[in-house]
Amino acid sequence: MRRTRLLLATCAALALAPAAFAAEYDLVIDKRTVTITGEPSEAITVNGQVPGPTLRLREGETATIRVTNRLDEETSVHWHGLLLDGKVDGVPGFNGFQGIKPGETYTYTFPVIQSGTYWYHAHSVTQEQAGHYGSIVIDPAEGPKIKTDRDYVVVFSEFTREDPERILRNLKVDPGYYNYRKRTVGDFFRDAKKFGLGAAIKDRKAWGSMRMDPTDIADVAKYTFLVNGKAPESNETLIFRPGEKVRLRFINASAMTYFDVRIPGLKMTVVAADGRDVEPVPVDEFRLAVAETYDVIVEPETEQAFTVFAESIDRSGYARATLAPREGMTGEIPAIRPRALLTMSEMGHGMSGMDHGGMDHSAMGHDAAAPAGDMQGMDHAAMGHGSGAPAASGHEGMDHSAMGHGAAAPADDMQGMDHAAMGHGDPSDALATDYPKVDYGMGRPGMDHGMGELAPEGTLDGAGNVMGWSSGAPWGAKVLSYADLRSAEPQKDIRAPEREIVVRLGGNMERYIWTLNGKKYGEAEPIQLRYGERVRMTFINETMMAHPMHLHGMFVQLENGQPAERLPDKHVVSVAPGRSYSVLISADAAGEWAFHCHLLYHMESGMMQKVVVARLGETPPQPDAAPEHGGHDHAHGAAQ
After folding, report:
1. Residue 225 CB coordination number (10 Å)
2. Which residues contact 298 (CB under 8 A, 6 or more apart)?
3. CA-based Rg of the chain, rounded to a whole angstrom?
4. At what angle do helices 185-195 and 197-209 cross, to 10 degrees?
5. What angle do CA 630, 635, 638 make, to 5 degrees?
6. C-alpha–C-alpha distance, residues 75 and 67, integer Å
7. pTM for the complete prediction?
């Protein structure tokens, strides 16, 4: 009888135990007709849906994922942010992987050695834009450290009826093809009225001499922005009960769009960045770069609907979901905030004491330098323009004081300037002077923000646009800064770096070619790392666009002002226009790894390089003579 009771008790316990997470999945990549915006359209689907299904794994198990390709072209799946063997990282042309041919099934098998929020996507030409992406949630082996009542994945993405290959061709013909909101004559007169005629003229001449446009902060327009595959009018709903603790796992699976994310009426507490736990940071909003993930906790106390609101950085639209006690409820949808206009300070202009006379405008796709009368005294080499220093050697010929790397300029030239603003500060968020009073975690009092001395960043121009790399958050709002991120667990490797690798992010806008250290993919030798070494990588953004830089196979640690043992891990680092940012890398993953900007059309236009981590005594793999990815002549910048 006792044995019977024990057996019954054991069976009851098993019945009440949570279901085991599947370690095996079958994914089918196909092209199907979907209806997202009310009209049928063709998309690449994963198991018949956009986005693909969420893969739920558990730390410590072995994942087996069979991928069947029913497309008429090669495909692949990259497990973004996962630490695994290079052979299953999923990038064609790396570590012997040649992609998945039409009609074939490829089996990815790898141990799951981490936990957190990640995602997967194609690494074959422009398939990611066409719908080939999905989310990954990996539960900790010992259970969640923060207990929550609800747990939701929130995937932001874009939808377009336009063929992604055509989008790329359009950008090649005219980089401003999708810039429908350029400044007008009316904008000029409004600026002249607000800031003075001389300042407005000087500003227009500066931008014109560089053949650039301050409104060009997003390459592609006419997107419909989605949450979990649903357009705004579809009202994706996330259910809660008042008083519950809800985890929202935000993933930016867009090809090209940055989002400013907020939930009006609810404070968010950031608890993880790119899958890694961080010490909790209460915020009102955060900027989500392409390919980044953030986990936040919200605790709604009232029985009302809240809008999860994500504005595109160019304010061309938004994605939204509703957090509500029941289906059918809607929260108030905020008005779109003013768009941002870049200022001269983003490009290193207008800073008193800087000599900007030697700028190589061809590095930015400009045929000639600005007239001496307009740009006299500007040494753009200080911003990394001109000849690129070798990636492994350092900063030859570079004025580090202008970038905050070394000694400050003489006090009479640079008095009051925060040099960290141009060095290892935080490029991911808006720059704010003491006006308006927005807590971006990185005030810059005393800095000359330029714009032809038109106005400090964060102010509004004559047409009501926000000036500078700013979200336009209201007075007193707390916007997440990279400087806020602090690892929840001590870092295991806190060694000082042995050497520095400088990576200049550049491009030729007139030809729509994007480069690393002046070269597009296939032209440069791989970056060589010795297995086990510790290096600093410094990104210098010479362009007017932000670049979310992604290194496969390894996390990097942000040098964000936190103590060495608490530097946060990231797999994507957003480097804002005209800024520099540094990270530390422990080269603990042997193999060949892709390193690229995660803006899809930038990567496809050359902004990618191979990183090789070799053990002592090994001969590093040689670069392919002609990289091929799916047979496209433009794949990853192989043949522009």
Report:
1. 21
2. 245, 246, 248, 263, 266, 267, 268, 269, 306, 323
3. 24
4. 130
5. 120
6. 10
7. 0.76
CA distance 314 to 558: 26
If we measure between CA atoms, which residue out of 603, 584, 529, 549 comes closest to residue 427? 549
pLDDT, one tens digit per residue, over 586-640 is 999 999 999 999 999 999 999 999 999 998 766 555 444 333 333 343 334 333 3
Q: Which residue's entry shows tokens 């500060």?
A: 425
Q: Which amino acid is at 122?
A: A
Q: Which amino acid type is present at position 528?
A: Q
Q: What is the pLDDT of residue 256?
A: 96
> What pLDDT is recorded for position 572?
98
- The pair of three-digit structure tokens given for residue 198, joined into one six-digit string: 């001389």
Answer whether 594's CB lies under 8 Å from 567's CB. no
Q: Which long-range contacts (CB under 8 A, 24 or more apart) does 163-170 make?
A: 164/126, 164/127, 164/129, 164/130, 164/255, 164/600, 165/125, 165/126, 165/632, 167/126, 167/129, 167/220, 167/601, 168/126, 168/601, 168/604, 168/605, 168/634
Query: How many Cα neighbours within 13 Å face the side chain of 469?
Result: 27
Strand locations in 412-498 (E): 466-467
What is the rounded CA–CA span in Å between residue 251 and residue 274? 9
State the Cα–Cα distance between residues 379 and 143, nearest whole angstrom: 54
132-to-53, 71, 557 alpha-carbon distances in Å: 11, 11, 29
What is the C-alpha to C-alpha distance for residues 175 and 337, in angstroms, rounded to an integer? 25
The sign of the torsion formed by the CA atoms of 261, 546, 427, 182 equals: negative
> Please, where are the H alpha helices in 274-427?
372-375, 400-403, 411-414
Rounded Cα–Cα distance for residues 146 and 141 (Å): 13
- Residue 116 backbone zone (phi > 0: left; psi -120 to 50: alpha; other: beta): left
How is 578-632 classified by DSSP, letter by letter? T-EEEEEEE----EEEEEEESSHHHHHTT-EEEEEEE-TTPPPPPPPSS--STT-
Asked if the peptide bond before residue 300 counts as cis, ω within 30 degrees of 0, the response is no
For 421, phi and psi rounded to 5 degrees? -65, -25
Measured in degrees and rounded to the nearest 5, phi and psi for residue 366 equal -105, 140
Q: Do the bridges between strand 513-516 and strand 499-508 make them parallel or antiparallel, or are there none, so unpaired?
A: antiparallel
Q: How many CB atoms lie within 10 A of CB 392?
A: 14
State how far the alpha carbon of 262 is from the alpha carbons of 310, 480, 485, in Å: 7, 11, 18
Q: Which residue's structure tokens are 């060694």?
A: 495
End-to-end CA distance of the chain: 79
User: Are the beta carbons of 477 and 343 closer than 8 angstroms?
Assistant: no
Distances (CA, A) of 637 to 251, 366, 386, 627: 26, 21, 21, 9
Residue 421: the pLDDT is 32
Q: What is 172-201 written as a DSSP string?
A: HH-TTTT------HHHHHHHHHHH-HHHHH
For 100, phi and psi rounded to 5 degrees?
A: -110, 115
